[in-house]
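Ticket reopened. Same input as before:
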Amino acid sequence: MAEQPDQPDQPATSASRAAELAAALLPSNLGVKVGMLIAVTVMVIGGFILYVLFARGVFEQTQRLYLITDNAEGVAVGTDLSFAGFPIGRVRGVQLRDDGKVRISVRVPVDDAKWLRESSVFVIEMPLVGAAKLRAFSANLKDPPLPDRAERPVLRGDTAQEIPKMVATLRSVLENLDQMTDSGSSLQESLKNARVVTERMAGKQGVLGAALGSEDKREKSAAVDRSRQHAAGIAQRRLAQARRRAGENRPARSRAGRCGRGNAKGGGAGECDPW
Amino acid sequence: MAFAGEYISGLAAGGGCCVLPASPPWRRCRPPPTDRWRAPSRWRQIHLTAWKILPGYLAAATLLSLLLIEVVVVSARRYGVAQYSLELVLRVLVLELVPLVTALFVALRSGAAIGAEIAMMSYRGELDDAQEADASPLHAELVPRIAGAALSVASLTTLGCVISVWLSYVVFYGFTPAGLTEFTRIISNVFDGIELTAFGLKCLLFGLAVAIVPAATALEAERGEIKSLPAVVLGGLVKLFFVILVVEAATLVVKYA
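Engineering reply: fixed in the latest deploy. New output:
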């Protein structure tokens, strides 16, 4: 009976031993370590939030610029406005007005507003890869500075929209090239003729052969020359025969008095020639 | 499962519960063995969940960050979009992967332990005994664990993200302040108010999921039925991974859909 009250203490004893073992495993400066971890976490979170606020320009003075465009596709809140490749402002709002045009609200830090002048031109560029880019161009930095809340139109240079035109032009160029290089085309014929001429120039006849043409044509022209010479020879012989005949018949004709009359008219010997 | 609802309702009073003494009410009648054992339970939980794994976690976070940053940088340069790679690294690594990996890390390290501990308490009937003794095991044992695990997830995520951001700067610009202006501009692009709010909310949900889901599932263990312990512990881990994926997908949908 005396041992019964001691039985519930057995689990208590084992539990206290386990607790002692666990306590021995715990470090003595547990609170310090955990406190350090939590403090570092809180400090890092607070510091990062301050850094982000600083990065977003919460602590710096800005001026507003309103850009008006017909199409603000690709422009979103956070898009940078860059000048000479350096971001000098950021889009803080995009709003569709009642007249159907889009007003892009840009915040520019006062320190960077010196790059924007009255004569500045603003362009939206849509590259093939990446988001739209807002660019500012100031040709003359001696112009008056752009006032706060100024409204300026923005031009749009869309590379993607240029692609169909470029493809159409390229297609027509390729078709022309195809026609020019096709067999039977005038360019091919010209090249063939040029090759024939150069081959002739490289042949036995040289440049003269190229100028005179082909061998067949040269033979034909020689035959024509020979026939002409033959015809000329025949004509000369006939003429000689005729003159001889005329010399034999002259006394008889003189007697007849026909040629004398003819000579008296100034016809000469040719008048009496039977030809 | 009756306790599961009490866990969630008890979280509303979590801040106040964190100041409760660590010793469970049904043990208060016994003198504490040592002064160390009086350390708040949530501190012990944070020490076990965050401090003890801090070196390993930081090493893993550094290695993962370096690998991913190098992969993204090399790929972006190869495709000619290097100017977008830093923003991509910050969005993918810092905002998405580091919190997810941290939650999984703490889940493996502590979620299973919390679930096993609660399951053993259910198996021994300690929770039922405490309820019969008009004590509140929820406030005494579970809420400090939940708060400790959530704080651990938040701390580790914060430190991991800081390491990732610092490594991103070093890899892109080197050990020089020359790129600070550009880096600050990209930081301002990535971390706007919505992103920071979604990031904080996601970390909070991850921490609560890591602490609550295994413990709530472990309460399904039957008293005196030791065969039910492995099932509830493993089931708790499976549910935890599912909840973590659902939270991650939901935040992605809210941000990008």
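Confidence is low (pLDDT under 50) at residues 1-8, 262-271 of chain A. The beta strands of chain A are 62-69, 80-83, 86-96, 102-109, 121-126, 133-137, 150-158. Please confirm and we'll close it.
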